[in-house]
Structure formats: structure tokens, C-alpha cells
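Appendix B, example 12.
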Amino acid sequence: MKINIKRYLGLGIVASCLLLSGCASVIRSNVTAFNEWPADLTDKSYTFATTAEQNNDLEYRNYETLIAAELQHLGFTQVANGAPAQLKVSFDYGISSREVRVVEPVVVDPGWPGYPFYGPYWGAGPYGRYYGRVYDPLWYGGMYGPAPGVIVPRESNYEMFTRHLHIDIAHAGNGKKLYEVNVNSEGRIGVLATVMPYLVRSAFTDFPGQSGLSHVVELKLDGK
């Protein structure tokens, strides 16, 4: 049976890229937003609802700046803490990881230098000297292992990260929520600060949008 090596190599590459979220060229996020946004709301002044601990957290303040920039693009106005504001914004975030095992098909030529256990000849026995790799009758499906150019499974293990962001916008006076959004993203990037700008942008895609609608947002990584 003739083996289409290019076809199997292509399938292996495609499978790997899908598992690695577009070969790490995009940040893909699942976004679910709920809202009861008043159509007549004209005053979009807001403050961040923060604790003393959050105010002293440099990472938190960095993400606060990212959210403020997105809100500004949507016509919101941030006011200083203590000043009157119509809205209050709060958020939380996190990251977790898990080990992933992938088994994919690869094309292997046991005669390649460095391939474990196999070489151009098997040992120094009579078959190895006489037949060599190509004509050895014990090579093809025999005791010496798979034939050159066959498909064998290859296992790889890596760490997959789940990044999440949750944002609430509520009335400052009575605390009634007007907008809440959950953003979840998986990928190989384990530095939350690198991914957070994309999570924030995804959170406000089509703001305020249809309540309860889940959708996928893909954002190209800068420089990719």
C-alpha cells in the first residue's frame, strides 16, 4: 500500500495548530455578557470600586488602566475617587494551568541517523551485513520494527493556561448591575499581563450587545 506522506504530515501540522490556538498567532476568547443597559443613559461618568489592597496592587492598577482606556473609547468618563459618578466599575481576573497530552501521527524513517534503536543496519548479525536496511526481509513489519516512511504516533506534553476576566458595571447609587461580562481564554501563553489587553478588548466587543449571547472573539497578537 502506498503511503501518502505529505497528507499525513499535513494532518499532523493542522492538528497541532488547532490545539495550540492558531499556532499562537491569535488570542481566542469565549465571551458571555449580560446587560440591562438603559437606552436613555446619557451620563456615563464612573469610578472604580476598589479596596485598599487593590489600590496598592500594581498589577491590578495596570489592568484598571487597560479597562479605563476601553471605556473611554465607548464614551465613558472616569472621575476621581470620591467625586460624584453615575456608575461604578469592578473587575477580577485569574489564571490557572493544566497539563495536556497530545498524540499525533508523524512520518518516521528508521534509517535516519540518530533515530533510536534503528540505523542503516541492525547490529552486526548476518542479516544486517548481507541484506542491509533496504532488502532485509526482517525489516518490513518484522522483528526490527516499522518500515521506512511509516506513520507512527508521537506523544508530546505541554502546559495549557486558562485566563479569565470578569467585569461589572453598576449604578453607583443603588448598586444595580447594568452590565457584566465573563471572558475566558485558553492558550500556551502563561503570562497574564501579556494576554490581558486582548481579554479587555474582547470584553467590550459590540458593547453592550445582546444579553446572554455567547460568542468567540479572535484578536491577532501584536507583531504576528
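DSSP finds six helices and seven strands in the chain. The first helix runs from residue 5 to 19.
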